[in-house]
Amino acid sequence: QVQLVESGGGSVQAGGSLRLSCAASGFFVSVYYMAWFRQAPGKEREGVASINKLGTTFYADSVKGRFTISKDNAKNTLYLQMNSLKSEDAAMYYCAANPGGLWFPLRAHEYKYWGHGTQVTVSS
Questions:
Q1: Are residues 55 and 102 in contact, defined by beta-carbon separation less than 8 angstroms?
Q2: Using CA atoms, how far apart are residues 20 and 82, in angstroms rounded to an integer?
Q3: How does pLDDT run along the chain (124 residues), one tens digit per residue?
Q4: C-alpha atoms less than 13 angstroms from C-alpha of 111 in its C-beta half-sphere
């Protein structure tokens, strides 16, 4: 049974950092396309960052240079290091997994499995 469990969210001041984790079970992150998405109240879900099977990464323009996606295959866990957080980064963050096919980094409908999310709050 595939399961994704996010953690690491919380409240931080603008300019601060957080690291999100997504523990995977029922499959191996090493052979899936993985990604982070976020959704703020009243806004559409948006892709934040993605990493493919080879470790190549892709970022939304809004987070380039501030966020880093990575995975630890031994721990079967996906991470999102978020630095220089801004108020507009506040949202529920979800991790997602796509088992195969082509890599469309930030297309939400390409991802089959989703976690329940972890909340990030940024105060100015």
A1: no
A2: 8
A3: 999 999 999 999 999 999 999 999 999 999 999 999 999 999 999 999 999 999 999 999 999 999 999 999 999 999 999 999 999 999 999 999 999 888 999 999 999 999 999 999 999 8
A4: 26
DSSP, collapsed to helix, strand or coil, labels residue 109 as: helix
Is 91:39 a contact under the CB 8 Å cutoff?
yes
Return the ∠ at Cα 53 (arms to 49 and 57), rounded to 5°.
Answer: 30
- Beta carbons within 8 Å of 91's beta carbon, 6+ residues apart: 38, 39, 40, 43, 119, 120
Residues 80-93 as b/e (b if ≥16 CB within 10 A, e otherwise) read bebeebeeebbbbb
Q: Rounded distance, CA 103 to CA 90, Å?
A: 27
Cα gap 49→51, rounded to integer Å: 7
SS3 for 76?
coil
Residue type, 19: R
